[in-house]
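User: what does the whole thing look like in 3D?
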Amino acid sequence: MTGAPLLEVEDLRVRFHLRTGTVEAVRGVSFSLGRERLGIVGESGSGKSQTARALLGLTPPPGEVTARRLTFDGIDLLKASRRTLRSLRGGRMAMVMQDPKYSLNPVMTIGKQMVETYLAHARAGKREAREKALAMLEAVRLRDPERVFSLYPHEVSGGMGQRVMIAMMLITDPDFLIADEPTSALDVTVQQEVLRILDGLVAERGMGLIFISHDLRLVSSFCDRVLVMYGGKVMEELASGDLSSAQHPYTRGLMNCLPSISGSSHPLPTLERDPEWAK
Amino acid sequence: MMIDIRDLSIVFGTGRLRVEAVKNFSLEVEEGEAFGLVGESGSGKSTVLRAICGLAPVARGSIAIAGAPVKTPRDQKFYATVQMVFQDPYGSLHPRQTVDRILSEPLSIHGLRDQDRRIVAALEEVGLGPGYRFRYPHQLSGGQRQRVAIARALILNPKVVLLDEPTSALDASVQAEILNLLERLRAERGLTYVLVSHDLAVVTHLCRRLLVMRNGEMIELTDAETLRRGEPQSPYTRELIQATRGFRRGTAPAST
Amino acid sequence: MAELAAPSGKSSLREWLTTSEPRSRAQARLGNAYRSWVAFSRNPLAMFGLFIVLVLIIVAIFADQLATHSPTVGGDLRTERLQPPSAAHWLGTDNQARDIYSRLVHGSRLTLMVVMLVTVIAMPVGLLIGTVSGYMGGWIDAVLMRITDIFLAFPRLILALAFVAALGPGIVNAIIAIAITSWPPYARIARAETLTIRNSDFVVAVRLQGASPFRIITRHIMPLCVPSVIIRVTLDMAGIILTAAGLGFLGLGAQPPTPEWGAMIASGRQFIIDYWWVATMPGIAIFVVSLGFNLLGDGLRDVLDPKAEK
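Assistant: Here's the predicted 3D structure for the full assembly of 845 residues, as structure tokens:
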């Protein structure tokens, strides 16, 4: 938990040069991440997912990423060669996406995909890779790892798929994991389970985690720190416990507009957006 | 009684592929009431809505609207009484039709005159100015699309509006706006709502009475006040309440 | 927001077209058309295809003015037969001493007529059968699609040949034969497209407003199938021209002395070694026009295909 931060981001910008002009999706985001859980919250179009993609070098063309500083464990990600990036990605840095259906290869069994991922990043034999994969499937509390190992992605349910995804991403023992809306495609009760597994693994392995979601309540209950983004900028950074004392009107607005079982005002307060915030 | 459903069973497929999506479902909704159906995917909550509209195969049971059993196939009078708002505002509007065309279609089908006035009034009612009238759906945001969908449902002056997860595809702040809009419209027009959602917080905000469903079965018929006091009957409802509060560390891991 | 420049004539028209708040149905429709046109005009190959097609249409309209000689009546058979390209006969003459250039110019009318008539007959038929089949499903779908399959099972030229043989040779019968053989792919495409949209929420929404199946098919489903069918038709135009030319070549299409391009190649075939221009010139014409329709179809696909939209 001590020492130099795992990830340092300073003045990160992501621009898309389109025919109709340049769109800046991320506009000067700075933060650093240790071996902790950092949440990034924002509405659609706030730049939260583009921030995550830029960290992994996955910004789709014609996007352009600039930053004054973008380092992972001392490696400058902007200057690193494609090869270094590739070996970092999926090796020491991993990402779990929203919908496992689109992130898994539909014509390859889950086990084979996991073995291939492991072999691509570790010097190991087939047998060792297989054992590792089975151990990972067990770690995400899948009841019958042997069976899941030989299934195709379409044969597993959403919750199982997301757990498989997590297992696959963690098989290379990454130091840093980005989870982009990992549970929003799941049922609420399954969501709890998947989060619990993710939480356990992150704590156990001492990983750094960036958890991206539009759900402020979920993020603040899961993470240690929260960045609130709007219009490609960080509005506020605060510890999860301090959310109720948030200063920024945007954060407060996001909190207040959620209905609650224990009673909410009628009508719900709506969020007033100030164009000044995005300047 | 506005909606009266008795012993409804809905079965998809036959033989080995036979799935009973809804089992022995009964429901009574008073006129002017907002009723919530809560459940996760596969609970059959949306299937019930579709069955009311004649879009799902009813194997057993009866459905009555405003005291009269519904006809199969549904007649024009039914469609003028019951309308529906869908979950996905991107999929529920025809991509090549302007808002004007989308709103005028129900009017032409039912042979209503005075289209211009009705369309402008309907847009106004959902908080969209006349400037939106000739836009295409791709020129609108998710919240604006959902407002158009609500305007379309209301333009025939229905008594019952079926809401199928109307806010789950929207951002939290937009969700609040749509929930407020729905609440205001119900108060103004005395509408009867059946709201389907997986989010207990949304349902308890809008509805007084609600029904929790799971795997096509009715789990618990309860009301928002009981849940507010934290006194649900079934453990499953308790689990759903827990989920709306976010993540809680240290609870016993569930096994699969 | 940046200050808008004072509206000059041209830019204010563009603003009027691209505004996100159109004031009338017509403006919204024109604005949408303008956006498509802007996207289309950015594709140079598609513009080239459009140019070729426009030239074909202009040539067909002004054939009488553009032709230098009569297309059917030849010159002096003793001195003017099979002349190479020259100042008097720009593309040479054929074995009947007729000016090839003038015959090509007049032949463009036939080509255009074939293409248009086939489109007018085959497209609506294919569209209707496909959308009805896809939307209604069940036994209607099964019957319509098996009929489609039967037509698809034969190579188009062979089937057209059989029809022409039964109906008797001639340009009109050739057009009918080609139309009869070209609708099945359109029906297939329209059906596939219909299947993807028949259960979408917006179709369910119209059903819940009480719309009849006929209304849903014609007013809500067909407009979405038209673009992909139009694209397929433009891509098929080349094939239609070639089929017409093929029938002409076999003597089953246009009858002499009609200046049909395929028939012209057929008659030039016997002299191809010594008098290459007789068969080559109409061949080039068929090639260029086919290419034009193909490029146009490709360009249209990029603009009209709903799936390519953002």
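In plain terms: Confidence is low (pLDDT under 50) at residues 252-256 of chain B. The two ends of chain B are 42 Å apart (CA to CA).
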